Amino acid sequence: MTTENQYAMQNPVTQYPQPGFPEQPQPAPGSVHKLKPHADHGETSYKGFGRLAGRKALITGADSGIGRAVAIAYAREGADIVLNYLPEEEADAREVVALIEAEGRKALCIPGDLSQEAFCQTLVSQAVQGLGGLDILVNVAGKQTAQKAIADLTTEQFDATFRTNVYALFWLCKAALPHLPAGATIVNTTSIQAYQPSETLLDYAPTKSAIAAFTKALAKQVIGQGIRVNAVAPGPFWTPLQPSGGQPQEKIPTFGAETPIGRAGQPAECAPLYVLLASQESSYITGEIFGITGGTSIA
Ligand code: NAD
Ligand code: MG
């Protein structure tokens, strides 16, 4: 599924599929190929304008969903990219590699589990080595597993969600910062859940609050070095995260219907914001959280 031309003026309400998705359980971490309808990651539509020419970017969660759209957009804006994802997501990631290479940009794959500190350190050092430096760190990877009752939320799940969403962010930023030059940027991914948490996301929602606070605090700490840190707070986006356990399955048919715009966002609609926050165009923006929610307030 893709829109003909995302740059043509049109009604955003009807630009993409409306709620009424079929229930479609798939095992986590999920694949873009099992989404019905398919999601738009900008494969055929995103146009680059040289905003990230020559930049070196590390993107986590780059195989699918929001991270896939960001990787495609960054390559079209002229960046070389290291993609991180889980080993079982190799097939989705290979398609992103092909799209990056089609732009004449470098795509290096470093799959692995971000919930392990040692891997986070290895990922950063291999990315720096492979790209010849690092200018942009984009933290997109995340774990979301809905549980209807606190009694069903195990310590193991609570721990895994925090390790993947919060600890990995800390480990990756800590490892990357010594390599980042003035002008470099970090873009994190929080959520509407930091502001309006769902009753089924007792572990996930607080990880997203932590990411928002971490972003603001780190931004103050490193702006003196000329490094900016911001975060994107998506509302409901049509990605494998949701039908693979992120939502109770019965919520999938109406996913996104509760937003003022009345539909789920498509990953392609997120990518331009990640581009802006990584590029020099956002030189006076740091420590900010940007909602991209179809109209639901993050205040
Ligand atoms: P997605 O499933 O396409 O991407 C999530 C990615 O996280 C996976 O592809 C996987 O590569 C990665 N990941 C998960 N656990 C990992 C681990 N232990 N090690 C390494 N990688 C791991 O879904 P998405 O919706 O594009 O999610 C991207 C980000 O957007 C997440 O941080 C998510 O919390 C956030 N977000 C999504 C929505 C939404 O509605 N889809 C809303 C708000 C925020
Ligand atoms: Mg994936």
From TrEMBL:
InterPro entries tied to this protein: NAD(P)-bd_dom_sf, SDR_fam
Presence of the UniProt keyword Oxidoreductase in the record: yes
Polar residues compositional bias, start-end: 1-17
Keyword field contains Nucleus: no
Keywords: Oxidoreductase
Protein name: NAD(P)-dependent oxidoreductase
Matches recorded under SUPFAM superfamilies: NAD(P)-binding Rossmann-fold domains
Sequence segments annotated as region (Disordered): 1-40
Alphabetized PANTHER family for the sequence: NADPH-DEPENDENT ALDEHYDE REDUCTASE 1, CHLOROPLASTIC, NADPH-DEPENDENT ALDEHYDE REDUCTASE-LIKE PROTEIN, CHLOROPLASTIC-RELATED
Chain intervals with Pro residues compositional bias: 19-28
Family stated for the protein in its record: Belongs to the short-chain dehydrogenases/reductases (SDR) family.
Species the sequence originates in: Pseudomonas lundensis
A Pfam match: adh_short_C2
